Every structure is written in C-alpha cells, then in structure tokens.
Amino acid sequence: MPFHIILLVLFAAFLHASWNALLRSGADRLWSMTIMCIAVAIASAVTALFLAAPAKASWFYAVLSAVLHVGYNLFLVRSYRVGDLGQTYPVSRGSSPILITLGAAMFAGETIGASTLLGIALVSGGIISLAFKGRKLAIPGLPYALGTGCFIAAYSVTDGIGARLSGAPMAYTVWMCALWGILMPLVFIGLRDSKSLFTLRPGFSTAFAGGLVSLLAYGIVIYAMSGAPMGAVSALRETSVLFAALIGYLFLGEKLTARRMIACAVIAAGTVIIG
C-alpha cells in the first residue's frame, strides 16, 4: 500500500474518532446524528455542483450505500445509549475489517496476501480486546455494536465497488453522501416529528461541524479504497480506536488501563504489517 495512502487513512481514523466522541457526549444522539447528516447533505450537494456525475454503473451502489448508512446511524446511536465510547466503539469497528475482507473477496474478487491477513487479524483482535472487562465482553448493547460493525462492512464493500465503477471516487462520494444526508432527516421525522428536528438547541453548531468532519474522513477512505485493498484500508481506518481510547481518557473520564495499552500495541503492530 502506498505510504501516502497510509498517512491519509490514519488521518481519517483520527477524524472518525473525533466525531464519534462528539456524538457520544451529546444528550440527544439521534438528533445530533441527524444534524450531522444535514451538514453532510449540504456540503455534498454544494461540492457536487463542481464535479462531473459519476458513471451510471455506480449509481445503484450509491443508493444502496446511502440506505446502509442510515441503518448504521440508527444502530450506532442505539449502541451509545447504553455503552461507553471505549467499549462499543472497539466492537463495532473491530468486527468490520474481517467482514470487509470476506466481502471484498466474495463480491469484488480481491485476494490478499498472508502478511496482510495477519495484520488485519491483529488489528481486529486488538480492537475487540479493548472492549473486554476481565474475561467478559460486558457490553449491555453488544447486539447493536455488532450490528453496527455489520453495517460498516456492508457499506464499505458497497462503496469500494461503487467508487471503482464510478471513474471518479470524489464525485461518487459526494453524491452518495448527499443521498444519505437526505434520507436520515426523513427517518428522524418518521420516528419523531419535524418540529423536534428543526428546533434550534444547544449543540447544533458542534453537531453540524461533526458532520463536516465525518464527510471529510469518509471521503478519504473511499478514495483509498478505490485503489487499495478494501480490507487493508479498513483495518488501517479502524486504528481510530487508538484515538478514541485517548479521547475517552482525556475528555470523557474513561479509564486507560494497562490491558488497553497492550491492545493498542497489538493494533499498532498489525498496522505496521499492513503497511
């Protein structure tokens, strides 16, 4: 994998951990997530005006990915209602690289070398171990965290294929994100009502900024997947748990134990092998 791609994906990992921390710290996470999506839709629509449309062959994948992203949003919000950032985030992110590797092999015909598979296994194993307490995976919202990981894998493979078919990964990204950003407010209104969505409340600017950060982070990942193995890119991106553990410790009052530090070292080793 080219060195500049590694650096870009690691930067995206930092951005991803940052907006997840913003979401976890919010009082009404469904509302915060929806405001993020509105920001994504506005920024994507404006950017799309300056780009040529992606190839027609990629549009099916863009629509499918937008729907999968909404499912991801709903599961992520639910998992954060009952779990800490340092617990649910590692499970959801750690389960996805292996699933993405399998999905890329099944649907995109990718083959990955033994050393890269070892690196992916180390990253995933280290990430998931961050969620353990003693010998137990004690997470009240475990099904939602695992479900989030499945949605991550599904939309990542979908976008990897779509970006390659599009002929223009950036254009594909902004059109897909615009669709996603439109769908999420409609789902919110269906679950609650339009008045509660458009009522200005504290945290609006933070959530809106978080949406822009999330768009930049995912745009970098799609760009990387358009020319590098999806499973390897995913494993590098999921090193965001290292940043999440540090953010949780510094700003959310979560513990950073020796066990977590060892897990972080395992993740770093896997990242080096992938690189």
Task: Report the end-to-end length measured between terminal Cα atoms.
Answer: 6 Å
Name the average pLDDT.
Answer: 83
Low-confidence stretches: none
Beta-strand portion reads under 5%
Return Rg in Å: 18 Å
Shape: globular
Helical proportion, percent range: over 70%
Number of helices: 13
Domains (count): 1
- E-strand count: 0
Task: Output the structural class.
Answer: mainly alpha
What is the N-to-C succession of helices and strands? HHHHHHHHHHHHH
What kind of sheet is the major sheet? none
What's the short story on this structure?
With 275 residues, this protein is mainly α. The chain is built from 13 helices and no strands.
Describe it.
The protein has one domain (3-274). The longest helix has 25 residues, at 142-166. The chain has 13 helices and no strands. Helix content is 79%, strand content 0%. The chain has 275 residues and is mainly α. Helix 4 crosses helix 7 (142-166) and helix 5 (96-107) packs parallel to helix 7.
SSE topology:
Blueprint (H helix, E strand, L loop, with lengths): L2 H23 L3 H20 L10 H24 L2 H10 L1 H12 L6 H16 L12 H25 L2 H23 L2 H5 L5 H22 L4 H8 L2 H12 L6 H17 L1
Keywords for this entry:
single chain; 275 residues; globular; 79% helix; mainly alpha
